[in-house]
Design a protein that fits this description.
mainly alpha, three-stranded parallel β-sheet, 5 strands, binds tryptophan, binds iron/sulfur cluster
């Protein structure tokens, strides 16, 4: 029986797209670093997902994967706190993907908005493949195999979490009904004691009859507090609130990553496709060079022309990196032509270089030592596989595929 508290489990993955930039750092990675202290975290390289769109030329995937892991480590993701691994090294994901594919209606996958959107966007590629249609379901397997309750993702991925919830619900509905479920659940209720049993029944009725979501939350919280019931009973009672069977695969929730406030060199969102990035591990000289050559307010042709920070992408960087005094200095100096653009850029360069110092320091340890990175990943894969096997064991049993004598 599972011992997982899925509300405490976080899982997220990233496709290996090459070296990461400061947008990833400020958006995703700082969030991961924070989460690793609060939850049991699994972070992985989604190399199979990369293959769905790059099957015609997979040659870069492996190198990108290693670089990406070094970026994670440089950013402060700590292999002592979080489990880091590579999707294709944990083949259990594939088995769950296959099993889930049996119960997933084609229409659900065809209706996921990213399916058509990406096909439109990547017109030069033939994405009318079986693997690409299954992209969100593979993602569902990634999540459900760890019974992760929380999944940090960007807004573009929310529909994938939604289909994951639907697939989990369908799975539990189909296979969570062990014989005698209701009787066992009833027996489990009485084990909570009179007062709690009564409260549980009331909350369950309020949820089932009135759709009261607060009652659902309260009933779940009530179960979490119970000391006297076994884990199996707890899972039964989680499922019983909603009327179904046992919850074998809990429904995850998206933890929406705050929209990255990190602008790129041209003022648009920092993104590889806009060619406006500063690498997470960019060398100081190169950072300085990139900032110095940044476009500024076009009205400032000469030093004596006043400018307007709101029309200048450098100002966007001051908003991220500068304190209020420096910001006031920029506004005043720019509008009065009291400072030059190079003066103005200096504190930004300094702040970025300063921010990257600890990243470089951590990265250096790994850059010269691929064995070390490999062993971190090796260990992560083993841990991930242990967790994945536990779920798969229950899934096989629920589907009548145990084959044990
Ligand atoms: N599809 C995600 C992306 O492109 C990557 C991913 C794959 C993922 N599997 C996942 C994210 C599981 C969260 C959970 O960003
Ligand atoms: Fe931009 Fe600063 Fe130059 Fe003003 S002074 S135009 S904010 S770089």
């Amino acid at each position: 029986m599972s011992t997982v508290d899925s509300q405490q489990r976080v899982l997220s993955g990233m496709r290996p797209t090459g070296k990461l930039h400061l947008g990833h750092y400020h958006g995703v990675l700082k969030n991961w670093v924070k989460l690793q202290h609060e939850f049991e975290c699994f972070f992985f390289v989604a190399d199979w997902h990369a293959l769905t769109t790059n099957y015609d030329d997979p040659s870069g995937i492996e190198a990108s994967s290693w670089e990406m892991v070094i970026d994670w480590l440089a950013a402060g993701v700590n292999p002592g706190s979080a489990t880091l691994f590579i999707q294709s090294r944990v083949p259990e994901h594939a088995e769950l993907h296959l099993l889930l594919s049996m119960i997933t209606p084609l229409g659900w996958l065809e209706r996921v908005p990213t399916y058509k959107d990406q096909q439109e966007k990547l017109r030069e590629k033939d994405l009318a493949t079986y693997g690409f249609l299954g992209y969100p379901l593979l993602q569902s397997a990634d999540i459900l195999i760890y019974r992760a309750g929380r999944v940090p993702v960007g807004a573009d991925q929310v529909s994938h979490i939604e289909i994951t919830r639907e697939v989990a619900r369908r799975f539990n509905h189909l296979y969570g009904r062990e014989p005698g479920f209701e009787e066992q659940a009833e027996a489990a209720i009485t084990k909570m004691g009179k007062k709690n049993a009564k409260l549980y029944r009331t909350l369950k009725r309020r949820y089932q009859e009135e759709g009261d979501l607060e009652a659902l939350e309260r009933a779940r919280a009530l179960l979490k507090e119970q000391q006297n019931i076994s884990l199996g009973d707890r899972e039964r009672l989680y499922g019983f609130i909603e009327g179904g069977g046992k919850v074998i695969l809990p429904e995850p929730q998206a933890l929406l990553t705050p929209e990255a406030k990190m602008p790129g060199l041209d003022g648009q969102k920092m993104s590889k496709s806009y060619n406006n990035t500063i690498g997470l591990r960019e060398e100081p000289d190169s950072v300085a060079q990139k900032i110095r050559t940044m476009q500024t307010d076009p009205a400032r042709v000469r030093l004596t022309d006043p400018g307007e920070p709101e029309k200048c992408p450098v100002w966007g960087l001051h908003k991220v990196y500068s304190d209020t005094d420096t910001q006031a200095w920029v506004q005043q100096g720019c509008r009065s032509a009291g400072i030059g653009c190079l003066d103005c850029k200096k504190p930004v360069i300094d702040a970025i270089v300063e921010e990257q110092k600890p990243l470089h320091a951590r990265a250096r340890e790994y850059e010269g030592n691929p064995e070390l990175v490999a062993s971190i990943i090796e260990e992560g894969c083993e841990q991930a596989r242990d967790a994945a096997r536990e779920t798969l064991e229950e899934v096989r049993q629920a589907m009548g595929l145990r084959f044990r004598r």
